[in-house]
Amino acid sequence: MNRSFAAAVLILAASALGGSGCTAPHPYIHDGNASGVEVRYSGDVASALPLATKHCAQFERVPRLVDPGLDVAVYNCVRR
After folding, report:
1. For 48-78, what is each residue's pLDDT tens digit?
2. φ, ψ at 72 (rounded to 5°)
3. Is position 7 within any domain?
4. Are 62 and 75 in contact (CB under 8 A)?
5. Is residue 72 part of a domain?
6. How many distinct structural domains can be found in the chain?
7. pLDDT tens-digit map of 7-18
8. Phi-psi region of 37 (alpha: psi -120 to 50; beta: other; left: phi over 0)
């Protein structure tokens, strides 16, 4: 194996490890209104709850999880 090929392999390996996304993206509101909210998340669905709570509180409501999808959690905003 020549040195330039070995260097290229090393660079690719380093970039793959460094850019692998070791930290998950933060949850964010994808869509929402007074009746409900969709929160995109990565990892644990519980990470979506604080955003849903804050969103529903604007309408004097609390979130109720109705669909814990793989990357989007759907909440209904229900009256207290």
Report:
1. 999 999 999 999 999 999 999 999 999 999 9
2. -140, 130
3. no
4. no
5. yes
6. 1
7. 554 454 444 445
8. beta
